[in-house]
Amino acid sequence: MDWQVLTRELSLYLENQVRVGLFGSGVGLSLVLGFGVAYACYYLSSIAKKPQLVASNDRFCRFLEEYCPVVTETYYPTIWCWEGRVQTLLRPFITSRPQVQYRNELIKTADGGQISLDWFDNNDSLYYPDASTRPTVLLLPGLTGTSKESYILHMIHQSETLGYRCVVFNNRGIAGEDLLTPRTYCAANTEDLEAVIHHVHSLHPSAPFMAAGVSMGGMLLLNYLGKTGRDTPLMAAAIFSAGWNVFESVESLEKPLNWLLFNYYLTTCLQSSISRHRQMLEKLFDMDLVMKARTVREFDKQFTSVMFGYRTIDDYYEDASPCRKLKSVGIPVLCLNSVDDVFSPGHAIPVETAKQNANVALVLTSCGGHIGFLEGIWPRKCTYMDRVFKQFVQAMFEHGNKIFSM
Questions:
Q1: Catalytic residue check, 341
Q2: pLDDT tens-digit profile of 136-166?
Q3: 198 is catalytic
Q4: I need a surface site. Which of 15, 60, 206, 345 has the fewest CB within 10 A?
């Protein structure tokens, strides 16, 4: 929306409220209009900005500008909740939850465990009626997220309109299935993701195949891509609100306000996710000690790092940080972050490293928080993140062969 139009509409709205007796006298009208215009000017000059597009490859940039233009357009955060923490907190409550009918599949792992996959087959696809060649998007939710998260449902809704098939990778023990072995998941170990990608590709070898990861799901996907390079059936990937440097992420989350708003709640979610598997896990862990954790760092120290054999929690955090593997990514990857995300602080985003890999493009907004990216006066149906996802997957599936020929 043009900023002059926004300012004019805001002024007319406030004037109308005064006329119906909300604010009273003409003096009140002047004050309200003055404040409204001042706020609108501040918003348009300091809040609403074009994202920063970081990419060393000019051809990748031109490809995004032509086929994914949303990454070059001004992002207008919701005018009444643009601050990062507020966006993060409100998104789960404000955004709608599109109805999605899943088909569940449990696959076995090499160690005797099982993984729950939720499929949206999109058998009514008009654009791709042949299931064998229907483009497929693998979706990876966040730390304790599942296929029921609103951001996952919105991605599936966007994919449905384009005719694509989706499959959601639920981490072990999260989606209601039993743990068959005393093992869950972490951001560094990519074995389960490798098994899922191999399984999905083996079912539809002729279908174009992409992946999108959110938060920890994005970290896991980046670590997988850094490990495999070009040796993957994925043609491209989209990453949203990934924590690039785990050390910086946990330090940010341990600041008093962030601990109160996010860290303690996230820790309780982690504890809740494993409590139903206590009988299986207490064979190897002091579950009473794990349940006493009050921060994510304490939980990872007592549980996650021990489960996956790390000598110290620092060893785990170093291995889990995608910034250390970004140079090795061998397929086109678009990464969206907000610099006001307390889960992934702006100063920890590896801008210089991204510039050294022609396959990587970063899109950095000034506002948006963690998986927020709310826009519009009442941001219920679609976020900026949803639009980036839709345009990028469509660009890659339908024009991906042009990415390095432009």
A1: yes
A2: 999 999 999 999 999 999 999 999 999 999 9
A3: no
A4: 206
